[in-house]
Amino acid sequence: xxxxxxxxxxxxxxxxxxxxxxxxxxxxxxxxxxxxxxxxxxxxxxxxxxxxxxxxxxxxxxxxxxxxxxxxxxxxxxxxxxxxxxxxxxxxxxxxxxxxxxxxxxxxxxxxxxxxxxxxxxxxxxxxxxxxxxxxxxxxxxxxxxxxxxxxxxxxxxxxxxxxxxxxxxxxxxxxxxxxxxxxxxxxxxxxxxxxxxxx
Length: 200
Hints:
Elements: H1 38-48, H2 51-55, H3 65-86, H4 96-112, H5 117-129, H6 136-164, E1 167-168, E2 172-173, H7 174-198
Antiparallel strand pairs: 1-2
Helix pairs in contact: 1-3, 3-4, 4-6
């Protein structure tokens, strides 16, 4: 008679234990581009952003609650993928390379959201503390992904700075135009407030 491997109950179906709810053949990874993937998590997060934030990622609040929840989900997915790579029997898995590209994209995303490199590595070192080992090439690939993420992040910052320092007509910087516009709006708003006050 079959029993649940978790609680030894005999009340089981083909999919789960009716006593404790343990799922048989549960796959935490899902399909490489499926609903559990990083890409689905990212799409779901992007759908919560305003159209202005989606069109200009520099306006996105990366320290806001939405972003924090998103990064938490991404880190959970990162850990699931690391668990997959710990298991040496998965070397010949049909989707091994796809999962690695997903892992790399996750690292790039974490770096772009200013997750410290130490935190990214901590998931790997934690596993080592539990006696699990990676191949040296895997470490190198993670390290390369982190380096690439840092380069991309720096390019983004530089491009934003260069945009703000761009000179319209070779004379006036865009940032000066913004400050002028803000000052004009403030002065006009103040003048309207005084005008309304005096006409009461």
